[in-house]
Specification:
The chain is of the alpha+beta class and 616 residues long. It contains 13 helices and 12 strands. Helix 1 runs antiparallel to helix 2, helix 2 runs antiparallel to helix 3 and helix 3 runs parallel beside helix 6.
């Protein structure tokens, strides 16, 4: 209970205790002013048990004090709960706002209680006026002055205690101001951190925009490669040249050109795979960061729910306190109207109203009590000054809390904006991931030559399987089968058949052949007779005798028992001769080789023929 309200209640109780039937001759009266009593004439009581009345009043005062202590205890508990909610630095930006609002509501509730007490004071003052009107009928109450002195001393002690409590409240208010300062600094720090996060988010959005542009360009390039259209690249140019055989070079140059183009195409695909791998890594890192942001938002939501629960509990307690104050107001109303359940106070006042109490003189000692009350009024005035200063500090603190609340609201709006940006960025990331997945599928289909057919895969399959009607396929099939009338097929056919005597390539190639086993003749100058055969090279088209000629004898038997099969005689541009002398080992002579005649018919039967090869 505030000191001023307590002092007013004590004065009212003192007046009620002193009220009794007046002695007209004394002409007593009691004036109220300046928060204390001014005695113009002595007051007397008529045999009323003022001690019992005062005891009852003191019990009511104690009950009021108990209610005030309970309210103070609940306020302290609210402060402790507020302190517990503010222990975590990460929760200060939200919990401070919520509990500051609850504290403001609690201060407003206490202010309402103070207003209610002020109203009660006014009503009690009205009761005092009514008691003053009856004070003229009171006589001295000397026997009870001592009890009033004791109560006054108790009131002084209570006032001193109220001063101590006021000092404690001022210290707590100072501590609360320090904590608000810390909370303001924390809110400022949170704002700085949010600014940094917003900057990072903006930078990430710029980078994602660039990545989306690159992905779009890459998709266009892949589409152009699949359709063999768009800006010419080594891959599309190579495939078109392979498909249309536009190189127009001999076979060797065409094969080398094909190798070069295939190597370029493989390099392009490897670079594409590397770029896709890099894009996948960036997308994975971005997904991890988005997941972390979602976890932080979940934790923030949990903290908000906890703070809301604590605020609801505090609201319930304040509602209970307001109910208690309402009940107290009901009791005071009953006392004012002298109705309801009978109490010592209502009984005593009714005795005063009905002139049923007795009195005794107490003028001198009551004057002393009046002086003590005047001194008490001075002390109360000092406490009032301190209370005004505390109220001023509380007002300043309220303004600071309001500013902190505004900062928190602004911070919440910025967080909401950041969350919206993050949601949009998440959608863009999902789109980029879908596009990258589709592009990966298309590239994988191109690499595996499967999936939806495209000009690229169709052309490569046709070249791989030698199907279709492209110039390359037709030419390769002609080369394989020796069909068609292309220059390359004709040249290869002539090379195979050796029919192009004017070709430099044919002229540079060896000419080879074999003789007929029936062309052997008898050589008569030997004894026994030998064999010879004339070998024709007319088909080779040599204009001069060849520089290198080689020959060997082929047969099914006996050809190893001959001499001269690799000796060239009578060499011209169109022919040469081979002389053959058969030999036979003679065992009777001890292994000396002797000759033995073979007839041409024998050579033909053993299929003896000369295999030869000649080069320029």
């Amino acid at each position: 209970m505030p000191p001023r309200a307590f002092l007013l209640a004590a004065c009212v109780l003192l007046l009620a205790a002193l009220s009794c039937t007046p002695i007209p001759a004394l002409g007593s009266s009691l004036l109220l002013g300046g928060g204390g009593f001014v005695l113009s004439r002595p007051l007397l009581l008529e045999g009323v048990n003022v001690g019992a009345v005062l005891s009852a009043l003191q019990a009511d005062v104690a009950e009021l004090r108990q209610k005030n202590t309970q309210l103070q205890s609940e306020l302290d508990e609210s402060k402790q709960e507020l302190a517990e909610l503010q222990r975590s630095d990460a929760q200060q930006d939200i919990s401070l706002t919520l509990h500051a609002a609850q504290l403001t509501e609690l201060h407003q509730s206490v202010s309402g209680n103070a207003s209610a007490l002020a109203a009660l004071t006014v009503r009690v003052s009205s009761a005092e006026i009514a008691v003053t009107e009856h004070s003229a009928r009171l006589t001295a109450a000397e026997g009870n002055v001592t009890a009033h002195g004791i109560r006054l001393a108790a009131a002084e002690g209570s006032l001193s205690n109220q001063g101590t409590r006021l000092g404690i409240a001022e210290a707590e208010l100072s501590d609360l101001a320090s904590r608000v300062t810390t909370a303001e600094a924390s809110v400022a720090d949170q704002g700085n951190r949010l600014t940094s996060a917003e900057g990072s988010l903006a930078d990430l959005s710029v980078r994602l925009t660039a990545a989306e542009g690159s992905l779009t360009a890459l998709t266009d390039r892949v589409s152009a490669a699949e359709g063999l259209s768009g800006v010419a690249t080594p891959l599309t140019s190579t495939l078109k040249e392979l498909r249309d055989l536009t190189a127009g070079s001999p076979l060797t140059d065409a094969v080398l050109a094909q190798d070069t183009r295939l190597i370029a195409a493989e390099g392009g695909l490897a670079a594409l795979d590397l770029r896709l791998t890099t894009a996948e890594g960036v997308a994975t890192a971005l997904a991890a960061r988005v997941t972390s942001a979602e976890g932080n938002l979940t934790a923030l939501n949990t903290r908000v729910l906890n703070a809301e629960s604590a605020a609801a509990a505090l609201t319930a307690r304040v509602a209970t306190t307001e109910g208690d104050i309402g009940a107290l107001g009901t009791r005071v109303s009953a006392a004012e109207n002298l109705g309801g359940t009978a109490t010592a106070l209502t009984t005593a006042v009714k005795g005063l109203r009905d002139l049923t109490a007795t009195t005794a003189p107490l003028v001198s000692r009551f004057l002393a009590a009046e002086e003590a009350i005047s001194a008490l009024n001075g002390t109360v005035a000092g406490h009032g000054t301190r209370l005004i200063a505390a109220e001023t500090a509380a007002t300043s603190l309220t303004a600071r809390v309001t500013a902190a609340e505004a900062a928190a609201v602004s911070l919440t709006k910025r967080v909401n904006t950041a969350e919206g940006n993050l949601t949009a960025l998440t959608g863009r990331v999902a789109s980029a991931e879908a596009a990258a997945t589709a592009l990966t599928t298309r590239v994988a289909a191109a690499e595996g030559l499967d999936g939806v057919p495209t000009p690229l895969t169709t052309t490569v399959k046709a070249m791989r399987d030698l199907t279709g009607s492209s110039t390359l396929v037709t030419t390769v099939l002609g080369l394989r089968d020796g069909t068609g009338n292309s220059t390359l097929v004709t040249t290869l056919t002539n090379l195979r058949n050796g029919t192009d005597s004017g070709s430099a390539l044919i002229q540079s190639l060896p000419c080879y052949g074999e003789t007929n086993p029936n062309d052997w003749q008898v050589y008569l100058s030997l004894s026994p007779d030998g064999l010879f055969i004339n070998v024709s090279m007319a088909a080779c088209g040599f204009s001069t005798p060849p520089r290198h000629v080689g020959a060997s004898l082929y047969g099914i038997t006996g050809n190893w028992l001959t001499l001269g099969s690799n000796s060239i005689y009578d060499l011209t541009a169109t022919s040469f001769r081979i002389y053959l002398m058969p030999v036979y080992p003679e065992k009777a002579t001890g292994g000396v080789v002797t000759t033995k005649a073979y007839l041409p018919s024998q050579a033909a039967a053993w299929i003896w023929k000369i295999n030869w090869m000649a080069t320029r």
